[in-house]
Write a structure and sequence with these properties.
By secondary structure, the protein is mainly alpha-helical. Helices cover about 70% and strands about 0% of the residues.
């Protein structure tokens, strides 16, 4: 949930007027929960999965010869039915795997964002389990300190 109740409060906090798009988004999201707004990512991903391949589909259907040199299998030509079947399979996997994964992963993402913007405690058990401690585990200096290694004063050129 946003900490502001009206557009005027946001404008005062930012010190500027909100453009049309920001005002539209604020009016949409002001009463929505963070989880509901996070669920909007599924719609954005669906649009990306659907719209990004379209130029390649049109190029494949036009059968332009210059495009063949960029294909992995230049002699393979797909029909519209084959491409649509592929799209259906991808969307089926999207709704069975990506969508539920997005919905279930909200608590982890919320903790990661809180840690990244300085609102979470990366040393907490929740932070360690959700990935905040991953940086600590992979950081060479922290690992060296845990192992009791000293930093070498000599540096190679």
């Amino acid at each position: 949930m946003l900490p502001y109740a009206s557009v005027s409060e946001v404008e005062v906090a930012l010190g500027r007027n909100l453009p049309f798009a920001e005002t539209l988004w604020f009016n949409y999201s002001v009463t929505k929960s963070d989880y509901f707004l996070y669920c909007n990512n599924i719609l954005f991903l669906f649009l990306i999965f659907s719209l990004v391949p379209l130029p390649l589909v049109f190029l494949e259907l036009k059968r332009l010869s210059f495009f063949d040199s960029y294909k992995i299998q230049p002699k393979v030509r797909l029909s519209l039915d084959e491409m649509f079947r592929c799209y259906k399979d991808v969307m089926c996997m999207f709704f069975l795997v990506v969508g539920p994964l997005q919905l279930v992963s909200y608590p982890s993402i919320k903790d990661w964002v809180a840690i990244a913007i300085g609102m979470g405690d990366p040393g907490s058990a929740a932070g360690l389990l959700s990935g905040g401690g991953l940086h600590q585990l992979l950081d060479p200096q922290v690992s060296a300190q845990r192992l009791g290694l000293r930093e070498d004063s000599l540096r190679s050129p």
